[in-house]
């Protein structure tokens, strides 16, 4: 490491020390010992491990460094390196990295600030004891956290689109959704972070009891059993993921649909008259979240579900309006 100046070497050591603390937490909380309690979705990992990262990084950073480097830039660099390594070595998928990155960045900063607050004007011996507490606290509190079950919440995501077509046309486009091409959907962030695109929805027979098979890319399929059938008014169905068709590599285990942390339970289309030849189409779904960070995780699941529903509604709108235009042209001829 001769190419690194001796003064800068201390900064490298600080970042490496913080990185090692985070990696230790990543591997320990991923073991079977913590899996039943939530594993990497435990608060001790999501909040206390990055706080330890920030404290350790700051502890080993030279005292001559600026306060902004000790509290912001040092921990920031360490977190970015940790997330980068998680992706490169396939420790986490892109979805999980995006979800945890704000938590890690914020709490690493908090950890560094608290460390400086507790060690201000203290001798080196006290500083060592303090950083040791930060480093050990996630593992000491994890067994206690494991005694409490993760709460379960139900969330509803709703999207609406105004369609220049009568309800009779719209109804035919929602009970079955013919194959959707990638160009029909357009680009979206949800594609870039790894969520498969919707492909089509078939229906075994019309009426209550009919089964829709909603397929997505990469072998993802949902079995939707119709329990409300009100022609040109309302279509509602329960949703069960067909786990037999979903490859294990499609989703990260923490965001697997139908898994212990997240599931999509129901879907509903409602058709509301909006004037002559116009229909307001409402699509809403219900999801289950079972994590220790439901309010935060819900922001992400709401966004993803809303984006998926928005794009499906946009495809339906264009198809309905095209069908309505053809019907008008035919009637005039």
TrEMBL record:
Coiled coil: none annotated. The chain crosses the membrane at residues 40-60, 72-91, 97-117, 129-150. Keywords: Membrane, Transmembrane, Transmembrane helix. It comes from the Bacteria. This is SRPBCC family protein.
């Amino acid at each position: 490491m001769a190419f690194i100046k001796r003064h800068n070497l201390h900064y490298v050591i600080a970042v490496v020390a913080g990185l090692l603390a985070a990696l230790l937490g990543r591997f320990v909380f991923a073991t079977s010992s913590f899996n039943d309690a939530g594993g990497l979705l435990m608060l001790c990992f999501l909040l206390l491990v990055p706080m330890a990262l920030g404290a350790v990084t700051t502890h080993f950073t030279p005292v001559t460094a600026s306060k902004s480097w000790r509290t912001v830039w040092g921990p920031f660099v360490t977190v970015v390196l940790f997330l980068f390594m998680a992706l490169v070595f396939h420790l986490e998928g892109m979805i999980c990295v995006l979800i945890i990155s704000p938590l890690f960045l914020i709490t690493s900063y908090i950890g560094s600030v608290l460390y400086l607050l507790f060690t201000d004007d203290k001798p080196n011996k006290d500083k060592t004891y303090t950083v040791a507490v930060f480093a050990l606290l996630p593992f000491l509190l994890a067994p206690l956290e494991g005694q409490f079950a993760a709460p379960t919440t139900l969330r509803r995501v709703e999207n609406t689109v105004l369609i220049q077509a009568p309800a009779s046309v719209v109804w035919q486009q929602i009970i079955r959704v013919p194959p959707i091409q990638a160009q029909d959907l357009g680009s979206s962030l949800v594609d870039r972070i790894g969520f498969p695109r919707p492909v089509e929805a078939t229906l075994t027979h019309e009426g209550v009891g009919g089964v829709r098979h909603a397929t997505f890319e990469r072998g993802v399929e949902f079995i939707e059993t119709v329990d409300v059938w009100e022609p040109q008014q309302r279509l509602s169905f329960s949703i069960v993921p067909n786990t037999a068709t979903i490859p294990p590599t499609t989703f990260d285990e923490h965001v697997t649909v139908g898994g212990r942390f997240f599931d999509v339970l129901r879907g509903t289309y409602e058709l509301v008259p909006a004037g002559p030849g116009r229909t307001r189409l409402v699509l809403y779904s219900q999801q289950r979240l079972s994590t220790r960070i439901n309010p935060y995780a819900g922001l992400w699941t709401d966004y993803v579900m809303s984006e998926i529903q928005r794009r499906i509604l946009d495809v339906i709108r264009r198809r309905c309006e095209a069908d309505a235009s053809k019907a008008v042209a035919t009637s005039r001829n």
